[in-house]
Design a protein that fits this description.
alpha/beta; six-stranded mixed β-sheet; 6 helices; 17% strand; globular
């Protein structure tokens, strides 16, 4: 089965390089236009199953790209909670704390008033396996967040966390053999 994992379209906060996390912000006009342009270019595959984070930016992205497919909302594809850092830029965070970006990938790190990184990665992988099971071997699409995509890529293929980074509206393509329980990275959709 083929699995395409799409990062939601751009929001106002994405444009300002803010850590959004669980802030439920809609797509920006720029984000909507970019997704519509991508859809017109037909860069995304068909979807018989569509799994989506419950946050508005993902639900809106799924509706724009797959208007005839009913989304299956999976809570576990929600972005990591950055806690006290949500809504702030990296420079704002560094100015008021001893945080640095390397800590975000440390499994032992818990964001102040937010989520533990290891638990977040485990949640993402558990939800991925749920989506695979619910797909029953059919190709599927997942619309989620940048952090979720990085956790998913690292969980399936190892490597550094940020190797899975994609920009808004971009995607990773994975093939999964349910019989052997093995995944292969096909590439990116940009």
């Amino acid at each position: 089965m083929n699995i395409t994992v799409i990062r939601h379209g751009k929001t106002k906060s994405n444009g300002e390089n803010r850590y959004m996390g669980t802030i439920d912000e809609p797509l920006s006009a720029e984000g909507i236009q970019a997704l519509q342009d991508n859809r017109a270019r037909q860069i995304y595959p068909e979807a018989s199953r569509l799994f989506v984070s419950p946050l508005k930016r993902c639900v809106e992205t799924a509706a724009l790209l797959y208007p005839t497919v009913s989304p299956i909302i999976l809570e576990g594809f929600r972005e990591i909670s950055f806690g006290d850092f949500e809504g702030k830029t990296y420079d704002e965070i560094v100015a008021e704390s001893d945080y640095d970006q390397a800590k975000m990938t440390d499994d032992a790190f818990t964001f102040p008033a937010g989520e533990n990184v290891k638990r977040f990665k485990m949640r993402v992988m558990d939800t991925f396996w749920q989506a695979v099971d619910e797909s029953a071997g059919d190709d599927c699409v997942i619309v989620c967040h940048g952090g979720v995509m990085m956790a998913l890529r690292q969980g399936l293929f190892g490597g550094e966390f940020y190797e899975g980074y994609v920009k808004n509206g971009q995607a990773l393509q994975i093939t999964f053999d349910k019989q052997t329980q093995s995944a292969s990275f096909i590439g990116r959709i940009e």
